[in-house]
Amino acid sequence: MRIATWNVNSVRARVERIVGFADRADVDVLLMQEIKCKPDQFPYEAFERAGYQVEAHGLNQWNGVAIASREPLEDVEYSFPGMPGFQKGYEGDDAPLEARAISALIDGVRLWSLYVPNGRGLDDPHYAYKLRFLDALRQYAADALAADPDLPLALTGDFNIAPLDADNGDPSIVEGVTTHVSPAEREAFRALESAGLSDVVRPLVPEGFTFWDYKQLRFPRDEGLRIDFILGSRAFADAVEHASIERDERKGEGPSDHVPVMVDLDLRAEEDEDDLPMIFG
Questions:
Q1: What is the pLDDT of residues 200-210, one digit of tens each?
Q2: Which residues pair with 66 in a beta bridge?
Q3: What domains can you pick out in the chain, each with its CATH number?
């Protein structure tokens, strides 16, 4: 199974490019973020012509997430347990949920497409919301894996965090001044890993950015950020055979400011081991 996650930065503006990549790269499951449309505005037909079925979750022209899959989408969820909401100026704990999470069970694998809040500024309420969102996500992952340690689970998407200094090549992103590199954000990312997840791409692709701002010639200068990830459970990580960051998708006409991050899974290997006969000495 080939899985890709991609912040597409408006699916309607880039539908031909997105579907073209998915078809050309032979992607089985494409997890999208920042689709920027409601479900009734999503360009389903283009994906269906290429052999994909789609579940989309969007509330307005902002945010939004979706999953396109060649395999059946089962047990679709539109938020994770404990996921916080946000509304500027709202004081309660029951703020409206944003369209930042969608999940499905695909061929026995639980996949999430996540658009983690940006944070906006270190003193902005959106930053506190971001940390609450990440903590709730950590708790969900810990609970899910405690209930089923062998679950192939992956949290994928735009995490809006550069967890290592090497992940930040943008001179405008400065610790103590901007979001994405603050100690609290990085600690929240590490907490996801301590909940039983690991970055399944970095061991195979140790270097490379996934986002370059449109301004200040960031892409030609390679002044980017690594903020898009696939975090997998042990069962998921054990099945990963190949990974890539599709940097070329930042080139050409009308690209997203993010590029796809992709992994290949071989879930049959574990199944084959389970089927081996027991040998008694």
A1: 999 999 999 99
A2: 32, 56
A3: 2-269 (3.60.10.10)
